[in-house]
């Protein structure tokens, strides 16, 4: 069974700073996807960024980028130029690559607070 | 182009009552997933359905919980004889068949409170 671990329950930074959220996972699969989801106080689950395990290049989406280390099974999220609207719970998630079955395994989450 | 629609957003039940949560997937999506989020935890997979079929219910409690996705109408997660431990946010997600991107589209969740 796959597991996802987020070792930082809470983090807090000042606006405009850069922050990195950690995530490690355990799997015997070779083909899979990794995700970071954002859950603001509204509780909507918002996809921030996705990484395919077969791609060596790290995914980026505007101010969000990941550091994917497949051998170390590490998948950290970097938020540059942080904004107040980035305040939310952030969940790392794993999904085995499989046609038709897209079952996510989530970590426990990191509560990120951006201070003005 | 509506996203995944869940209702009710909030539901309050007394112990022993039944709770029904509904989910309409995105247009064109034939696969529905239900996840449960207990307070201060990540989401946990419950069940995966296609139209008229339960494909994977490995995350569903064996008793009191059931799910369906009929040929017509929304998917329904049903919890019978609710207990306080069922208080949680229940999220529905949908995906199109063989999308290949590994991406699920989530609804806004239904928060169940059991008194």
Tally the beta strands of chain A.
12
Oligomer: heterodimer
**Helix fraction of chain A?**
under 10%
Structural class of chain B: mainly beta
| Bulk shape of chain B | globular
In what range is the share of β-strand residues of chain A? over 45%
Please bin the fraction of helical residues of chain B: under 10%
Catalogue the unreliable spans of chain B.
none
Element string of chain B (H = helix, E = strand): EEEEEEEEEEE
- Average pLDDT taken over every residue of chain A: 93
The Rg value of chain A, from CA coordinates, equals 14 Å
Task: Give the overall form of chain A.
Answer: globular
* Largest contact between chains: A-B, 25 and 28 residues
Q: Sheet with the most strands of chain B? A: 7 strands, mixed
Regions with little confidence, pLDDT below 50 for 5+ residues of chain A = none
Largest sheet of chain A: 6 strands, mixed
Number of H- or I-type helical stretches of chain B: 0
Proportion of residues in extended strands of chain B: over 45%
Note the gap between the termini of chain B.
36 Å
Structural class of chain A comes to mainly beta
Mean pLDDT of chain B: 91
Explain what this protein looks like in three dimensions.
- The complex is a heterodimer of chains A (116) and B (115).
- Chain A is mainly beta and 116 residues long.
- Chain A is 0% helix and 53% strand.
- In chain A, strands 2, 5, 6, 10, 11 and 12 form a six-stranded mixed β-sheet that branches. Chain A has a four-stranded antiparallel β-sheet with strand order 3-9-8-7, with no helix packed on it. In chain A, strands 1-4 form a two-stranded antiparallel sheet.
- In chain A, a hairpin with a 4-residue loop joins strand 8 (64-69) and strand 9 (74-79).
- The model of chain A has no long low-confidence stretch (mean pLDDT 93).
- Chain B has strands spanning 5-7, 10-13, 19-24, 31-37, 43-50, 53-56, 65-68, 75-79, 88-95, 105-106, 110-114.
- In chain B, the strands form two sheets. In chain B, strands 2, 4, 5, 6, 9, 10 and 11 form a seven-stranded mixed β-sheet that branches. In chain B, strands 1-3-8-7 form a four-stranded antiparallel β-sheet, with no helix packed on it.
- In chain B, a hairpin with a 5-residue loop joins strand 4 (31-37) and strand 5 (43-50).
- The model of chain B has no long low-confidence stretch (mean pLDDT 91).
- Classes of the chains: A mainly beta (116), B mainly beta (115).
- Chains A and B meet through strand 6, strand 10 and strand 11 of A and strand 4, strand 5 and strand 9 of B.
């Amino acid at each position: 069974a796959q597991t996802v671990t987020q070792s930082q329950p809470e983090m807090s930074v000042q606006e405009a700073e850069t922050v990195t959220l950690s995530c490690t996972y355990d799997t015997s699969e070779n083909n899979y996807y990794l995700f970071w989801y954002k859950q603001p106080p509204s509780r909507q689950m918002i996809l921030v960024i996705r990484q395919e395990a077969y791609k060596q290049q790290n995914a980026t989406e505007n101010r969000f980028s990941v550091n994917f280390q497949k051998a170390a099974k590490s998948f950290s999220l970097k938020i540059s130029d942080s904004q107040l609207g980035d305040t939310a719970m952030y969940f790392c998630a794993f999904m085995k690559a499989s046609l038709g079955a897209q079952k996510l395994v989530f970590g426990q989450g990191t509560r990120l607070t951006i201070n003005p | 182009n509506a996203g995944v629609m869940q209702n009710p957003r909030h539901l309050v039940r007394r112990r022993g009552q039944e709770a029904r949560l509904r989910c309409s997937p995105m247009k064109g999506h034939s696969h529905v997933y239900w996840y449960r989020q207990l307070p201060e935890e990540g989401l946990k997979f419950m069940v995966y359905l296609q139209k008229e079929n339960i494909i994977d219910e490995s995350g569903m409690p064996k008793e009191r919980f059931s799910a369906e996705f009929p040929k017509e109408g929304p998917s329904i997660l049903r919890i019978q004889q609710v207990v306080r431990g069922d208080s949680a946010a229940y999220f529905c997600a949908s995906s199109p068949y063989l999308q290949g991107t590994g991406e699920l589209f989530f609804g806004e969740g239904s928060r169940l409170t059991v008194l």
